[in-house]
Amino acid sequence: MLCLSILLFCLSLLIRYRIYGLSNEDVVILQDWYQHFYKRGIVSLANGNFSNYPPAYLYLLWISRLFSEWIDSITAIKIIPTLFDFISAFTIFLMARLKFKDDMPYLFSAVFFSLPTIMFNSSGWGQIESLYTSFLLLCAYFLLKEIPFWALIMFGAAFSIKSQSIFFLPFLGILFLKGLIRWYHFLLVPAAYAVAALPAVWIGRSWESILTIYIGQVGQFRSLSMSVPNLYTFVPDTFYDAGVWMGMGVLFWPCVYGAG
Question: How many CB atoms lie within 10 A of CB 30?
Fold first, then answer.
């Protein structure tokens, strides 16, 4: 089992090396942000206009710019999410170790690291899903260890990177109703977000631009399906508002019905 895990891990590294040169529209945008840091340095963190991402990711992008003499911009951009894939794989190993004492945790970790969706998202397209999901995995791990304090800090760190981490919130809500998480633990989420914002604020960025960044993202794309293979693909975007409300109703009706 350990030999298979090592083989899968090495195969994943080989595939990641072969696909790291891929590019798309998002990679081009990230390169523009990288070049912004390259030309203007750390003071770019005070600018809330050139990027619509929270400061937490931008710190890492600025740090990667410091190695521009040794690696090109595409490599620097894609190394960031790839490193967080390592963190996620290690977290999965820790979670599996709670149940399995043999070599199975190594296999679980290697299989995750070798998943095509994981490899292409990080090493192929340079997306940052691996950053916030790694913190969500750490959140789940600390919940399994019954340490809600660190679990909610990890959730706060995930939310400091991308708003999609909020989809993990219903699970935390269930644990709250079961008494496994106290109400004051949720205060750690905005606290973690604020701490992550402090360096950018210290450099000159306004609290208003940081605290409202996710609000500005809400209406950025008026499309029911952003190249995702689901039923919304067959619905024209002219029905965007109706589609959103119908989808919300379908999503929350079972919760309301179950609560009643």
Answer: 25
